[in-house]
Write a structure and sequence with these properties.
The complex is a heterodimer of chains A (86) and B (366).
Chain A: H1 3-22, E1 27-37, E2 40-51, E3 69-70, E4 73-79, E5 84-85
Parallel strand pairs in A: 2-4
Antiparallel strand pairs in A: 1-2, 3-4
Chain B: H1 3-18, E1 23-30, E2 37-43, E3 61-62, E4 65-71, E5 89-91, E6 94-97, E7 103-104, E8 107-111, E9 117-121, H2 123-126, E10 137-139, E11 153-160, H3 188-206, H4 215-221, E12 247-251, E13 257-261, E14 278-283, E15 287-304, E16 307-317, E17 329-332, E18 338-346, E19 349-354, H5 355-362, E20 364-365
Parallel strand pairs in B: 2-4, 5-13
Antiparallel strand pairs in B: 1-2, 3-4, 6-7, 6-10, 8-9, 8-20, 9-12, 10-11, 11-12, 14-15, 14-17, 15-16, 16-19, 17-18, 18-19
Helix pairs in contact in B: 3-5
Classes of the chains: A alpha+beta (86), B alpha+beta (366).
Chain lengths: 86, 366
C-alpha cells in the first residue's frame, strides 16, 4: 500500500473510533502518523493515540486499554503530556 | 613574534585606536594577506585613505606589530524577539492584545476583500480568547514584555474566528448557525453583514471546513451593533470541534511592518503538511527552531487556562515551542512556504492549524 492509501485507510478508522478513544482515561488526542514498535518506526502508517502519560495495561481497567489494532489498522500510543494553548 | 608581544602592543594602542572615528573595536588576529599575527582594528565601514583625515588613519604598525583593518559594520546587542521593535517591526516577535501576556506576530497577510495588509496571529493572542472587542489595542511588544497601552499600540483587533469551548455557555451556536435577523429598520449595512457571513460560510463548506466565522465577529468587524445570536440547543461534541485559533489585527501604520520573519525572511504561498516534512518557525519565546511533522489530521483537546477546546484536523511536530510562541507561522524548511499557524503544545509536542484552513476562515491570502 502506498503512503496515500495507508493514510486514507487510517483516516477511515480514525473517523469511526475517535469519539470512543477520546473518552478513554488519559487520552488527549487521536491522529495519523508512522507507527512505532518497540521504539522503532516500522514505516507503516496507522492511528496514533495521544495520551498525557503512559500507564501500563495492568494498571488500567481492561475496558479502558487502547487496542493494538482497529479494523486492521495498527494503533500506536504516544505520550505527549497535556496540550495547552501556547 | 609571540602572541604576547601582540597583546602588549594591543594594550598600549587600544585606546588611541578606539578614539579614531569609524573604529568600533580592536582585537588580535592574523593579517588577511600575510597571515602574520596582527593588531586588528574593527571599523564600521572601510574607507579609502584619501577620504580620511591624518588622525583617522590606522598606522601600518604599532610597536613593530603589523596592523590590519577589518570592516564589521555597526555593532549592537542581538535583538531579542521580546524587544520593542521601532521603526520597523518584523514578524516572529512579541505582540499581544492589551489584556493578555504575550504571543507572536505570525506574519503579514492580505485581506481578500479590501486588499489591506493585516497581522495574523491567534485568537488567544490578538482577541484574548473571544474576550475582546474589534478595535481593541494590540501592543508590540506584548504586555508581559513591557508593552504599554496606548504608547505601544501598533494595531487594532480587526476580526477573529470564535473559539468554541467545551461546556461553555458563551460558546456560539454550532453550524449551520442561524443567520442573525437584522433589527427592525435595519440598515443596508446589516444586509452586507449577512452576505459576508453567508459567503464566508459557503466558502468554508466548499473547502470542506467545519469552521465558520461566527456572525458576531463579522458584525463586530463591520462596527455594526446587532443582536447577539441566540444560543442553539446543546451541541454535540463533534459540532464543538474547532479548526483554527486565528485572528487578524489592522496596523495603525502598515509601513511599520516589514513582513520579514526573523531568521526566516519573506514567505509567500502555502504548502500542505505531510508526514516527515521538515518545518521551522520563529517565535517570541524560543526564537528560531526546526522540527518534523509526525502527526496529521489530529483531533486534540487543548487547555485554555481552566477551559478546554477541541480541535480537529491539526498538525503535530515534536517540541519546538513554548508558551508565548503562539501565533508563529510554521514554514516549510525547504522553501519559504507557509504550512501552519502554531497555537498550542505540550512538553513533547507542538500543535498547529493547517494554513489553508486559517486563510479560508479569515478570507485572507499569504
Amino acid at each position: 500500500m502506498s503512503v496515500d492509501e495507508q493514510t486514507a485507510r487510517a483516516m477511515l478508522v480514525q473517523n469511526k473510533y475517535t469519539e470512543a478513544l477520546l473518552k478513554l482515561p488519559h487520552v488527549v488526542g487521536v491522529g495519523i502518523g508512522f507507527v512505532n514498535k518497540g521504539g522503532v518506526q516500522t514505516g507503516e502508517i496507522g492511528l496514533v493515540v495521544m495520551v498525557d502519560e503512559k500507564i501500563s495495561a495492568q494498571e488500567i481497567d481492561p475496558v479502558d486499554v487502547i487496542p493494538k489494532e482497529l479494523d486492521g489498522v495498527p494503533v500506536d500510543v504516544k505520550a505527549i503530556g497535556q496540550p495547552r494553548a501556547f | 613574534m609571540s602572541i604576547n608581544e601582540v597583546f602588549r602592543a594591543q594594550a598600549r594602542f587600544q585606546e588611541s585606536l578606539l578614539a579614531k572615528p569609524n573604529v568600533v573595536g580592536v582585537a588580535v588576529g592574523r593579517k588577511n594577506q600575510s597571515g602574520e599575527l596582527a593588531v586588528v582594528t574593527l571599523v564600521e565601514q572601510k574607507l579609502p585613505l584619501a577620504a580620511l583625515s591624518a588622525d583617522a588613519i590606522v598606522p601600518k604598525q604599532v610597536d613593530g606589530v603589523v596592523t590590519d583593518v577589518v570592516e564589521i559594520g555597526y555593532l549592537r546587542a542581538y535583538d531579542s524577539p521580546r524587544d520593542r521593535f521601532r521603526p520597523t517591526i518584523p514578524s516572529g516577535v512579541s505582540i499581544g492584545h492589551f489584556k493578555i501576556t504575550a504571543g507572536t506576530l505570525g506574519t503579514i497577510v492580505t485581506d481578500n476583500l479590501t486588499g489591506d495588509k493585516l497581522i495574523l496571529s491567534n485568537n488567544h493572542v490578538l482577541a484574548n480568547s473571544n474576550n475582546a472587542q474589534v478595535g481593541d489595542a494590540i501592543l508590540q511588544p506584548g504586555p508581559t514584555d513591557g508593552g504599554q497601552n496606548p504608547a505601544d499600540m501598533v494595531a487594532r483587533l480587526e476580526r477573529f474566528v470564535q473559539i468554541r469551548f467545551v461546556d461553555d455557555p458563551d460558546t456560539p451556536p454550532p453550524t449551520p448557525g442561524p443567520t442573525p435577523t437584522p433589527p427592525p429598520g435595519g440598515s443596508g449595512g446589516c444586509d452586507i453583514v449577512s452576505v459576508i457571513v453567508g459567503l464566508t460560510n459557503a466558502l468554508a463548506s466548499l473547502v470542506g471546513s467545519k469552521q465558520r466565522v461566527a456572525p458576531s465577529s463579522i458584525q463586530a468587524a463591520q462596527g455594526i451593533a446587532m443582536p447577539t445570536p441566540v444560543a442553539a440547543p446543546i451541541p454535540s461534541a463533534q459540532a464543538l470541534d474547532n479548526e483554527v485559533d486565528a485572528a487578524l489585527a489592522k496596523p495603525v501604520d502598515p509601513n511599520m511592518f516589514s513582513g520579514q520573519i526573523l531568521g526566516i525572511g519573506g514567505v509567500s504561498g502555502t504548502k500542505v503538511a505531510t508526514l516527515g516534512m521538515r518545518v521551522r518557525k520563529s517565535g517570541r519565546t524560543t526564537g528560531y527552531t526546526e522540527g518534523t511533522v509526525n502527526l496529521l489530521n489530529a483531533t486534540v483537546s487543548v487547555a485554555y487556562g481552566s477551559r478546554t477546546a477541541r480541535f480537529a484536523g491539526q498538525i503535530i511536530t515534536g517540541p519546538i515551542s513554548q508558551g508565548g510562541d503562539s501565533g508563529s507561522l510554521i514554514v516549510d524548511a525547504a522553501e519559504n512556504k507557509a504550512v501552519g499557524l502554531l497555537f498550542a503544545g505540550s512538553n513533547l509536542s507542538t500543535i498547529f492549524n493547517p494554513i489553508d484552513r486559517v486563510l479560508a476562515a479569515l478570507n485572507i491570502s499569504i
